[in-house]
Amino acid sequence: MEDINWVFQLLGRMHPLLVHFPVGLLVVALFLEILSFRDKKSELRGGIKWMVYLGALSAFFSAVFGWLLRTQENYSGSLVNNHQYTGIATTVLAVITAFVLRNTLNKKNKDLRLYRLMLMITVVVLSIAGHLGANLTHGEDYLTAVLPSKNNRYNDKKSEELLSDLKKTETLSELQLDKLNLEVRGIFAHKCYQCHSENKQKGELILEHKEGVFKGGKSGPSIVAGKPEQSEVYRRITLPAGHKKVMPTKGKLLTANEIALVKLWIQKGAHWSDKEVKVFPEAALALHKPTLPKVEEQNHPVDKLIDKYFDTHQLDWPNVVDDRTFIKRVYMDVIGLLPDPNAIQKFIQDETTNKREELIDFLLNDDKNYTQHWLSFWNDLLRNDYSGTGFITGGRKQITGWLYKSLINNHSYDQMVKELINPVKGSEGFIKGIQWRGVVNASQRTEMQAAQNIGQSLLGANVKCASCHNSFVSNMTLDQAYGFATIFSDSILELNRCDKPIGKMAKPNFLYPELGSVDDKTVKERLVKLSKVMVQRENGRLYRTLTNRFWDRLMGRGIIVPLDEMDNTPWNAELLDWLAADFVDSGSDLKHLLKQILTSKAYQLPVVNYQKIKEVKDNYVFKGPVLRRLSAEQFSDAVSQVISPLYKAVEYNPNGEKINAQRVWHKEMSVNRVVLPEPGKRYFRKSFNLSKIDIRSAKVLISVDHSYQLYLNGKKISEADDWTKVNKLDVSSYLKLGQNTIAIKGENEGTIGNPAGVLFSMQIIFQSGEKLYINSDESWKSTDQLPNKTWVTNQFDDKSWNLVKNYGTQNWGHLINFTFKNKEGTFARASLVKQHPFMKALGRPSREIVTTSREEQATLLQALELTNGAFFNRTLEVGAQEWIDNYGHNSKKIIEELYLRALGRNPTKEEKNMLMNALGDHPQKEQLQDVFWAILMSPEFQFIY
Asked: Which residues cross the membrane (predicted)?
């Protein structure tokens, strides 16, 4: 039997040739099928048919020959398994597709939908199988290896320098032996893992860990300590190029320096270091505050460091921006709002030398607006939102209240981190994660989510990749990820590689164990330890990461990019470390860090408008802040300031008046269960008694979705059909001593069941100062039957009516104008509004994952929303009417006021003439709406200069 094994080996090795047939045939078949979607009798049908048949046949033989290749060549590992399974699945699907097509073509009524669906699924699975096969042949990072972030990987120069250093001495120290071993393991990682790893054990040889290296493979021991010539690995790497047994068989051969290092390592006893091999660059953990350069021309610490940087790059300092540009920039960055025209004029006229720093202090001390602006940054970073995945089932918790309190009270970053890691009441949602419904991948357990969230948001470390297998983009291992996740687990976690258990149990450990032990008996005790370890000054990674994020937010580009890969090389390491160390010295005061950047001359330089994204990412040279688009929240708030409020309700209302009114409606029942309110009219009543009538004031707040008529003691008070507008009514003259009755006729529009609700509050203030509130709640009564005419009076008997149901705030949020306080001119800040289609289109993320940066480039969806979106255009329409009501038909006044509010300046003569021609002497709503749109779409409005 052994004599004919070569036949099976030969057939197996034909697998790489054959797999290209199903790839080409089935993919082209799908392409041609798409071209013939509207034509069942397409002239392409004959060709498509034979492509599908031949594709299925070649897929079958490819799977058979692939199985032979695996069994004859000793391929093993999870990657091989997955490639085999998807290959077999492709074959099965291709054969089924061919049979479905054959049966369909034999019928008179040719319904091709099932066949087309099967063909699409087949090609998708085929693509996955092909990708896994490419991983096997070219290495698991063959796609990502070309990315710019990989340019700083291992190179031969490093081998040459180490070899030169080690040759200087006959006897190597323990440290030198460690360096030599780690370098050799780095060579193995870059040149050998694609064939000899846990995922692909070609020749039964694994070079990924100590056991595999010294065990050897099918050819026997790979390493014989002290004897390179007898070591199979050394013999193979020194064979001439083209030899059938030379290693590596794929990719570049080892260089002379690399071969010499492997030889030296074996000669010196093949010492194996206990340290992890550092295949990728890794930033120093410790944080040191660099000495500032002695630069007399610059006073600010940041500018001294930038001055040194400019000298190195032969750059001159540009002049700082003018006052008008500066005030808009700093307003937008600190509080997220446009400056008032009067504030702009006052600032420009101010001749105080220190006025810019004073303005920065003023804005940073505007605690409410500062908090409501920066809330969006922290919500993105900490994966916090008001609604979304997990909230319905209770498998996710908000941290909004805790976060808002922390920001408005300017809690130190240390305190915030401690309370996020070792939760206090209100902050536990961060490490709680999302309890996903259904079957959950091992890498998405809530404990692993906690590790991933902390790693990414607070440490700029990618734990996600390492939670499935040893990372392809960093030095982090599966052991490290599971050790970190175990801190948050009340049971011992078993390591899963690519979602398959490997029989190894994790031990609680921080990603950087040199900072201290976090192991203890209970989760609570471990979290206490971790919270203390995390905020040590020695954990420079924590402070560098946030410093880098703040610099990116204010300057448009981080000192390190991407922001979540803090092992990458910074464009100015001294600047990053100085700012981070100064941040720690301030007691980790967030506003102090912001002020250090904002008061620098570097922040006040003119913006740089890079024409290509690549210029911002690769070979970047700092010349000033990068031109930035307004965020979804900044744009929304600016529109609300200038035109008309975009949003009427917020999901979280920190400044709202505490009114215990509930959104109620008739309790709709169907088949003995509560259902959504049905369309139609419903009738509501609430009676109450007044024992005295010495009333100072009596006011009503009412909002009904969709429309209502309000009666008090039989008299009609008001009616409206827009629930977003709170009607505020004086009802003092309608009240009387004894029994009083509130009656509301509400109507729910639509054709099917949909949300509806009455929100009502009456505040009665007596002469004594005593207050009485009558609020909508579940004590009110309702009916869906038309009552007689007396239903609005005190005499009506409503005993047969049913109690209403509280429908909560989920569909309406908290109306900011539902208050008895005078809050004219206020609007709902976008950061407090739950995810809205308009903000989603403008780039606000769903926050189901940590989001540390948003896409700056405009998208087609944004363009469509801003040009044809009903929501945005409705706001412009409402705003146009409000402006006409306010300014009449005075085109000149409207244009001047619009420019001052939106752009902070007067229009030029040419701009005024152009818009006067557009509006005419008697502007109409539609004309003004178009002018609004033109101004809001201008780069001057949309960008921070």
From this structure: 17-38, 50-69, 84-102, 114-134
The Cα 945–Cα 644 span in angstroms is: 24
Q: What is the pLDDT of residues 840-893, one digit of tens each?
A: 999 999 888 888 888 888 888 888 999 989 999 999 999 999 999 999 889 999
Identity of the amino acid at 327: I
- The domain 664-815 belongs to what CATH superfamily? Galactose-binding domain-like (2.60.120.260)
Q: Which parts of the chain register pLDDT below 70?
A: 1-10, 12-13, 38-42, 72-79, 108-109, 135-158, 198-200, 242, 249-252, 275-279, 437-439, 823-825
pTM: 0.74
Segments in 632-732 forming alpha helices (H)? 632-642
**Residues sharing a CB contact under 8 Å with residue 605, sequence separation 6 or more, in sequence order:** 317, 318, 320, 321, 623, 624, 625
> What are 198-237's pLDDT values in tens digits?
666 777 788 877 888 888 888 778 888 888 888 888 888 8
Q: Estimate to the nearest angstrom the gap between the alpha carbon of 748 and the chain centroid.
A: 37
Boundaries of every domain in the chain = 2-138, 150-267, 664-815, 860-944
Asked if 68 contacts 13 with a C-beta cutoff of 8 angstroms, the reply is no
| Residue 466 and residue 481 in contact, taking contact as beta carbons nearer than 8 Å | yes
- pLDDT tens per residue, range 498-535: 878 888 889 999 999 999 999 999 999 999 999 999 99
Q: Is the bond preceding 706 in cis, omega lying within 30 degrees of 0?
A: yes
- Of the candidates 799, 758, 794, 802, the residue with the CA atom closest to the CA atom of residue 776: 758
Contacts of 27 (CB under 8 A, 6+ apart): 123, 126
Asked if residue 341 lies in contact with residue 900, where contact means CB atoms within 8 angstroms, the answer is yes
Q: Where are the alpha helices (DSSP H) in 714-855?
A: 837-841
pLDDT for residue 598: 98
Which DSSP string do the residues of 361-421 spell out, in sequence order? HHHHT-HHHHHHHHHHHHHHHTT--SSSTTTTTT-----HHHHHHHHHTT--HHHHHHHHH
Supply 201's token pair.
């054990």
Residue with tokens 């149901």: 805
How far is Cα 457 from Cα 850, in angstroms, rounded to an integer?
7
Going 21 to 22 to 26 to 31, the CA torsion angle's sign is negative
Provide Rg for the chain, Cα atoms: 35
What pLDDT does residue 921 have?
86
